[in-house]
Amino acid sequence: MLETVRRATIARLNDHFRATGEDGWIFLSRGVAVLPIATKDEVIHAVRLFGDFTSDNDPHGEHDCALLMVRGHHIMWKIDYYPRDRNRPDDPDPANPATTRRVMTIMLAEEY
Fold first, then answer.
1. Number of domains in the chain
2. Pairing verdict, β 24-28 and 100-108
3. What is the model's pTM?
4. Alpha-carbon distance 92 to 43, whole Å?
5. 59 in the Ramachandran plot: left (φ > 0), alpha (ψ -120 to 50) or beta?
6. Per-residue pLDDT averaged across 71-87, rounded?
7. Structure confidence by residue, pLDDT tens digits, 49-77
8. The domain containing residue 40 runs over which residues?
């Protein structure tokens, strides 16, 4: 697969996962989990709708991490990749949703 097509595929899969939560796991850090419910809802909504990717904040074009501000909180979200089959030791291919589980962590930037 050409590298540009591969990265575009990864970005599309990451965007879909981030917007829907489908076919992966999403975790909130302790710092985000203890925020007031209304703030936490705004954080999740902002992450789901984030689209301000640039070459500075997304140098590989995969839409796998970003920083944003919500109600005065610096929020970071990051998508990691794990094999769907936990018995397979090989690295997952983020361009292949059949073998890769996406896991997103939403955290306060200072928790990273």
1. 1
2. parallel
3. 0.93
4. 28
5. alpha
6. 94
7. 999 999 999 999 999 999 999 999 999 99
8. 3-111
Side chain identity at residue 89, one-letter code: P
State in Å, rounded, how far the first CA of the chain is from the last one.
Answer: 33
Tokens of residue 12, six digits: 């599309």
Six-digit token string for 32: 């985000």
Burial class (CB in 10 A: 0-12, 13-18, 19+), 85: exposed
Residue with tokens 């975790």: 27
Please give the structure tokens belonging to residue 39. Answer: 């703030």
Output the 3-class SS for the chain: CCHHHHHHHHHHHHHHHHHHCCCEEEEECHHHHCCCHHHHHHHHHHHHHCCCCCCCCCCCCCCCEEEEEECCEEEEEEEEEEECCCCCCCCCCCCCCCCEEEEEEEEEHHHC
41 phi and psi, to 5 degrees? -60, -40
